[in-house]
Design brief:
There is one protein chain. The protein has 138 residues and is α/β, with parallel strands linked by helices. It folds into 2 domains: 29 residues; 105 residues, Beta Barrel (OB fold (Dihydrolipoamide Acetyltransferase, E2P)). 33% of the residues lie in helices and 36% in strands. The protein contains 4 helices and 6 strands; from the N terminus they run αβααβββαββ. It has a 5-stranded mixed barrel. A hairpin with a 2-residue loop joins strand 2 and strand 3. The mean pLDDT is 89.
């Protein structure tokens, strides 16, 4: 009797796991260009929030579409994707904006020292705040 309950419990957990995996795999793709920003702020503000309380900042920004404004400190391409670094008041940290394929085609127009507005999905803080699938805001 006890073995039967254990087997049923394992089956239920297995089915639940399969359901969650299916939902995650078939999660709809977010087109950042077509979506409006959940939050608009400066590169300094988002970095300060992550630096002062990373747990709170994760709750506030993680997986949300963020529009960020800042001064370009570096422009580069890696693995055929553009990466724009926005300068902050912290000499050791910045906001890294990994561009979408479409935005990467326009990276040649970006100059160091220029003020830019970008919109992307926040994936967290690893010495720098990271935004992915970034698009230029005109």
């Amino acid at each position: 009797m006890k073995t039967k309950k254990i087997i049923i419990g394992i089956l239920i957990l297995g089915l639940l796991g399969v359901f969650v995996a299916y939902k995650m795999y078939h999660k709809p793709h977010v087109n950042v260009a077509d979506e409006s920003a959940d939050i608009t702020l400066t590169a300094n503000t988002i970095l300060e929030d992550f630096s002062s309380d990373e747990t709170m900042a994760n709750t506030k920004y993680l997986e949300k579409i963020i529009q960020v404004e800042g001064i370009v400190s570096e422009v580069k391409t890696a693995n055929e994707k553009g990466i724009i670094t926005l300068k902050t008041n912290d000499d050791f940290a910045s906001v890294l904006c990994h561009l979408s394929t479409e935005a990467t085609k326009k990276i040649h127009t970006v100059k160091v020292g220029q003020t830019l507005k970008l919109k992307g999905i926040c994936t967290g803080f690893l010495m720098d705040v990271v935004l992915i699938k970034c698009e230029f805001i005109n």
